[in-house]
Every structure is written in structure tokens, then in C-alpha cells.
Amino acid sequence: MTATAAESDAHPSGPLLDRARGLVDALLQTAVQETPARMRLICGYQLGWWESDGRPSSAGSGKALRPALALAAAKAAGGRTADAVPAAAAVELVHNFSLLHDDVLDRDETRRHRPTAWKAFGTADAILAGDAMLALAPHVLADRDRPAPPEAARRLGTCVIELCEGQHLDCAFEQRDDVGTAECLRMAQGKTGALLGLSCALGALAAGAPNGVVIAMDTFGRRLGLAFQLVDDLLGIWGDPAVTGKPAGADLQVRKKSLPVVAALAAGTEPARRLRALYALRRPLTTSEVARAGDLVAQAGGRTWAQEKAQFYTASALGILDGSLPPTSDDAELRALAALITRRKL
After folding, report:
1. CATH number of 5-342
2. Are 223 and 193 in contact, with CB atoms under 8 Å apart?
3. Are 216 and 325 in contact (CB under 8 A)?
4. Average of pLDDT values for 21-46?
5. Cα gap 127→117, rounded to integer Å
């Protein structure tokens, strides 16, 4: 979800995201130029640089949250922001690889207020463009002017495996009626938390931080990732389409077992039973049924549970900063980004 102008003004992290985008875009554009023409077109479309016919686009390039976390983690670990630019670009490539594949798997037709890449270019080419972006990530990480340490490449590979496992579980849950909140949180840890953890860990590695700080940064990012996913799932049900770029109740329309839904289904109350009956229908939900499902999730306690869990994981992440960094560390940017993640508007 793209931050609104009001959100950017209200949070110092708005300019941080803009700065991160400005720092990584040049490196991303150089990397994408290495791909064949068709892949280059799709990658540039996914990154918001141009339209499907190659004309310049005003669609925007997304939040650049993960690059911003990498840059802020480098600063918090006592390094220079410039040293973490390759790491920041690499995590943005991995993120967009996952989005391209995720949109295909979920059959989502809209992202950032325009057709998803598979709708614009076809399923096969969207998948292949995602593969190309993933292949570019270690190339960018090995930037000849600012090469990352070997540990960075190992962490990147491990993270991608976690991403794939998280996405597998997300898809598998759609075929099950017995998904619990604990395993749903584990899925979110792989699908979302792993990449935010990688972003922070790579930033710390770029700063030359000791292993203990790298591990702490990874843990901070993972816990923040869980908070991010919980807020994202809330937006997937109750978010404003003008802000999210997706239809209202998009997750409910496809009967996605997001975290608020799983918590609601596990409640065992009358609203939970009625929600389960809606989710058992073997046809697309009507507009009125989508609205009713959202009401039932809230009545069964799923909305409140997700909000409270998001607050818990945010506090837990910030506690890592309190206990793992030297008192002289400048972690203000990491804290500002955490605030942006958890205060996105429904």
C-alpha cells in the first residue's frame, strides 16, 4: 500500500521512503538493463517506471520499505547509508520477485491502482520476469564498488527459501478448514517477516557490524514483519481502495485465510459459524456477502485480535533495539519506519 500525502507529512518515515527509492532506483535500473527486452519491459512495469507499452508511468514504484529498512539498519549499526545501497536494491528485487509470483498464485488483478503484471503481459512472462528479478539480486549484492560480505549472499538464499515455504503454506491454507492462528503466524513469518529481517540484517552487515548486532537486526525485522502482515491483512479487509489500490474486501472476495479471518474462525461463536458457512460456499462471494463477511470477522473478534497482535509485535521489535544496540546508536530512522508500518490507515 502506498502512503498517502497526509501520512508522509505526519511521519518522518515518508521522506525516508522517498530517499530510499531515490538511492536504489539508479542501481535497479542498471541491473534491469541486463535482462532481455521483454523481461526488461515487465520488470520496469512492476517497478512503476513505465506502462505496459513502454511509455513513462506516473503509477509510482511502491513504498521502498525494505530498502529503507536496510539503509536505516546500516545507520543504526554505525555504518554509512551509502554502503548499504546494494543490499537495499537486492532486497527490493527479491520483494518484487515475490509480488510477481504472489499475484499469479492469488490471481490478483490489481496492484497500485493498475493491472498486475500477469494481467498486462500474461502469466508465463510475469513468472519469468519474477525469476529474472530474483537472479539479479545476488548480482546487485556483489556490486564491484561496494561488495557485500559472503554472509550476505548466504542470508539472501536462505530468505528466499523461507519466502517460498511461506507462500506454499499460504496457498495450502486455502484448501483447509482447520487452520490455527499459531501456524498462520508461522506462515506470515516466512512470507513477510523473513524479508524484513533480511533487509535489516544486510544493512547491518554492510555496516560491518558484529554478528550479535546482525542477528538482533534480523530479529527486529522479523518481528516488525509480523506486525506489518497483521496490518496488511486488516487493510485487505477494511482498507480504503483509494489508498490500497485494490478493491474493498479483496481478501474476503477470494476467501483468503488471512490472520484476522483465521482468528475469527477459531472463536467458536455464532458469528464465527456464520463466517465459516460463507467461506464454505463454492462460488465467488457477492458484494453484499463480502461486506457481511467483514462484519462477521469483526464480530467474532478477528479485527481486535489482529490489532492487538500488531501492537504486541511492534513493541517486541522495538524492545530489540533497546537491548541490542549501543546507547550511542542512531536508531531513530528504524523507529520511524516501525511507526509508519503500524499506523497505516484503514
Report:
1. 1.10.600.10
2. yes
3. yes
4. 95
5. 9
pLDDT in tens, 199-213: 999 999 999 999 999
- Give per-residue pLDDT as tens, 246-262: 777 888 988 889 999 99
Q: Any residues with CB less than 8 A from the CB of 214 and at least 6 apart, and which?
A: 77, 151, 201, 204, 205
| C-beta of residue 345 within 8 angstroms of C-beta of residue 243 | yes
pLDDT of 73: 97
**Which stretch of DSSP H or E encloses residue 111?**
strand 110-111
| 132, pLDDT greater than 90 | yes
> Residue ranges of the alpha helices (H) in 142-210?
150-173, 181-188, 194-206
Rounded to whole angstroms, the Cα distance separating 91 from 196 reads 9
Whether the per-residue pLDDT at 3 is higher than 50: the answer is no
Helices (H), 174-301: 181-188, 194-206, 211-238, 241-244, 250-253, 259-265, 270-279, 287-299
pLDDT confidence of residue 13: 63
- C-alpha 74/C-alpha 37 separation (Å) is 34
**DSSP secondary-structure letter at 240?**
-
Q: Is residue 110 helix, strand or coil?
A: strand
Using DSSP's 3-state secondary structure scheme, residue 56 falls into strand
Cell 544496540, residue? 325
What is the Cα–Cα distance from 224 to 222, expressed in whole angstroms? 5
